[in-house]
Specification:
Number of strands: 5
Number of helices: 4
Strand order of the largest sheet: 1-5-4-2-3
Order of helices and strands: EHEHEHEHE
Shape: globular
Structural class: alpha/beta
């Protein structure tokens, strides 16, 4: 896992053709505000999270975020453990995000 600043994470994600954007917050948080084109998978739903993560394409580069950066750091560690090679945690989470967002 690499911890990236907001600017580093945004620039790297936007220039990565092999990127997968993962939001690990709850359904309610995701509906309120999220980064466009992100896939939401609630880390608090442990069994579902593990089942889904085990099906992920391990060759992708995973850009992970949550509200503040703590849950996404946990998620990156889990992804690392199941064999994903490249995980990038967004420091400060969506609370500090200055890029585009959308809501449902």
């Amino acid at each position: 896992m690499k911890e990236l600043s907001q600017q580093e994470w945004k620039e790297q994600y936007e220039n990565d053709e092999n990127a997968f954007l993962l939001d690990v917050r709850t359904d309610e948080e995701y509906e309120e505000k999220h980064i466009p084109n992100s896939t939401q998978l609630d880390i608090f739903q442990a069994q579902k999270f593990m089942d889904e993560v085990n099906e992920f394409d391990k060759s992708k580069n995973y850009y992970v975020y949550c509200r503040s950066g703590k849950r996404s750091a946990q998620a990156c560690q889990i992804l690392d453990q199941v064999g994903v090679e490249n995980t990038y945690n967004l420091q400060g989470g969506i609370m500090e995000w200055e890029g585009d967002t959308e809501s449902n």
